[in-house]
Design goal:
The complex is a heterodimer of chains A (114) and B (113). Chain A is mainly β. Chain A has strands at 4-7, 10-13, 19-25, 31-37, 43-51, 54-57, 64-66, 76-78, 87-94, 104-105, 109-113. The radius of gyration of chain B is 14 Å and the shape is globular. Chain B has strands spanning 3-6, 11-14, 19-26, 32-38, 45-51, 56-59, 62-67, 72-77, 86-93, 101-103, 107-112. Classes of the chains: A mainly beta (114), B mainly beta (113).
Chain lengths: 114, 113
Amino acid sequence: DGGITQSPKYLFRKEGQNVTLSCEQNLNHDAMYWYRQDPGQGLRLIYYSQIVNDFQKGDIAEGYSVSREKKESFPLTVTSAQKNPTAFYLCASSPRTSGGDEQFFGPGTRLTVL
Amino acid sequence: SQKIEQNSEALNIQEGKTATLTCNYTNYSPAYLQWYRQDPGRGPVFLLLIRENEKEKRKERLKVTFDTTLKQSLFHITASQPADSATYLCALDGSGGYQKVTFGTGTKLQVIP
């Protein structure tokens, strides 16, 4: 089955710890994205990548880091510098053609900082 | 500043009626607009895309309109069913050349049997 997977589904972290969220896709998509969703708010873009070994900051990149060493993988690290990391994190991918491609989302990771 | 507005209040409608959701935007000139469905605790699922040169798009019971003069998109679900209950998000591109969209906050739809 083609799709996008995220792990773990639930993640708990102590304050001051870094944590890495996994995102893998087997859709052969070039573009990948990380969003954060808070209650009552829309999806806010953290980072996106259009090609391997390249990524750009989104609207709320502070306190986060990413890497894109392989086409199918786009892990997100939530660092201790992120002041309010408790949220629902969504990873997505798209083919990156002429524009307007739909984004395929993973099931999400709910991060709670204790 | 740029803004995408969807009705934050939940929309409750009777089964069988047509649900109409609104997406308004300011200070954008989108080349396209997308609609997604999101169920609680899950990732959004793409429904429809409409481009700036299209007035209307249909897919089964779904219809989307796009008025670039009013800066508004309407999303209609005809013959609504309880299974249509979800949050619906609009998303539009903010700059050309990138696969980068900005999402609205979504409208929660509740279809009452």
